[in-house]
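Researcher: Predict the fold of DUF7730 domain-containing protein.
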Amino acid sequence: MTKLPLEIRRMIYEKALGGASIKVTDIKGALFSSRCRLFEQLDGPAHVLLDLALPLLRTCRQIYSEAIEYLYKANYFLFTTDAYKQPTLEYLPYYFLPQRLTQIRSVHFFWKMDSHHYYLMTHGLDPQMDEWLKSWDALSKLTGLQHLHITLSYTYWSEACKVLWEEHGARLLEPIKMITAPRDFVITLPGRSCSTDMDVGESKCIFRLPSGDDGDGNAAPV
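Model: Structure tokens for DUF7730 domain-containing protein follow.
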């Protein structure tokens, strides 16, 4: 294979190691990856093992050095805070080398704001910001991102959540301003009543309102 022109080899690497939607979840301190089909069952156990041509990376040192970047830049990574109630995003720097993080191009993050890990704006409490800010800081390290979609949701979008979002939503989304790399940056807000008129600084972020079955953003991601 090394006798083929480099451009041909790159085409092979992208085809063999890319083109998948990969769900990434932390389970009891270990990173687990699975293949997602049309984003289904993102809040449940991993259901399809990856079928990428990973043995290709063990062929020889030259092929590894040429091909490894395609595992990161040619796939679509999905994260969710709901599955297993474990953090994932903010711990990526512990699992991946910095240069691998910068090779990731596409991310979709399904952010359950009332999951055990974040527990934001529930029961009348002010947002607990430490873990929330850690996740945004981790996102800011993905400097190669071109596509970033974030879906914010609650288990149940109640009238109390609406009131609390009106009071705290702008502060919660202040970290958007440090995410300046993605040219395609979309945040789906947790309820249709949310305002999309917020300052995003130099970020290219745009806001969308949900289109869930109940009309308030409570439907599971599909």
